[in-house]
User: What shape does this take?
Amino acid sequence: MKKHLITLLTFCTVTLIFAQKMPKAIKVTYQRTSNGKIAENQDPMFLFASSDLSLITTNKILQQKANFPFEQTFVNFNTQTISQWAQMKNGKSILSNDNEALRKQKFEFSNETKKILNYNCKKAVTSVNSNKIEIWYTTELGLKGGPSVLGQNLGLVLETIRNGNATVTATKIENLKATPSLLSIPSIQTVDQLTYKDLLWKSRFVNIPVFSKEQIHFVSDAKSNDSILRFASGTVIVRKIKFPEIKRGSSIYADVTEQSNGDAYDRTGTVFMIPTDKKMSFLDGLKNGVKTLPAYENGNGKKYQGVVSTDEYTPLLEMMRFFTPFGVKQFNYLQLKNKVWQDSVIYRQDISLLQPKLSNQEVYIGMFIGNYDAGGHKASLNITIHQGEDNNPKADFILPLFNTLNVMEMAGQEYSTMFDNEKGLEMTFEVPQGYKNFKLSYTTTGHGGWENGDEFLQKKNTILIDNKEIFGFTPWRTDCGSYRLSNPASGNFGNGLSSSDESRSNWCPGTTTNPNLIDLGNLSPGKHTIRISIPLGKQEGNSSSAWNVSGFLIGEK
Assistant: This one.
């Protein structure tokens, strides 16, 4: 009898201990550390888990204080399904299910053990995108879950370590008397995983479509409509765009996609804004003719229309300069062994410096691709805004100074040959009170497409402020051969090179040209002069060189 009583008491004790280790549901709080230091201002991560489901979320999400979009992750242990639930800024939610990812996880198991929150933990190791992930898990609570989807089938993950330095560790485990209502997958329409990722990504920024596959070509009867204005025989397109408020510190990008629609040559392209802050703008020249624009003269006998700022006129503010390749898409039938031509060229450039000129403004945005072909090119332009957190209302000062790129080339605007004398390009500008740390954004490319033309010769650009040289460099690109697969119609030479391989004066067929950001220091308030000097190559017959330079001044509050 005594023996049976001891056995019964032992069974009851084990049952009681087991019951204590099998709560109905738990809440686990995790903390992030990096290189041994606790991450500052972190949003605590929570895991809610029952025998059927786990939920990964954060404190801010539960408090409805998280920035949109935000995600929560469910794991259904009965169906072995991972469900991603995202809530968007517009109030919409999307859900995607993955029935394979949990089963596909592979681990190497170690004999190492350690205690976390007084629970015995085992170690498993896996690799994700070349990152080594160590997972410490326990089976003593009888429930599964973790701070990520990794290792949720192993047990309760109490710590993960990525590459030995980024750690997520459980700091608290709470037993819950009942399964919380939030441990329930939302009953909403699901989308496939690719669509889910795409919708989530696109919801993180503002996309402003400006042009969509618009034809930029040379025709005598180019027609405007209510949305898009066409000028210079169809080689210039312009549209009025309303920008939202853009916080300082935000990132702004211009994205252009281009294809040949008949033109086989490498052409100069530009995306620009038309300032309308003065009595006259470039838009007046587009509408009324290039000769109506103020002309710059430097004594060489020519008049250069609309290229420098005056008291009554502001030149084009260049946002991006790009160069079309030789006939991408339209001439892809020109086959070469082991060459798979690109379908289009995508240009993407950071234009965040222009935030003061775009934020909460309605402006004219234009695009030009020089060509004399009836098919021309097709191009799209999107501007994306990735909001920052800087609420400082003090905006930078931006003053467009000059732009010699002859956007109205096909309507008679003079090529930028003013650098054929010592004066080159010279103008006066005025610095207002209250600004410091001035910079010049300067974009330059050399042109003249024959053996002795400046396209293929290295020429120093010298920038002088108040007759003092403040910057000098030789703009040159040696990487043009990297873009051969975008140039199916490029000419080929007897020495085995393609024309698109040749090094050039700061550009390649199929690339953008980055602006140089030049420190000018603290310019004193008042008037100053700027001069651009370039040793322009001499004309040979009907061939002449030119330099397209644009620049705007930036000052900080």
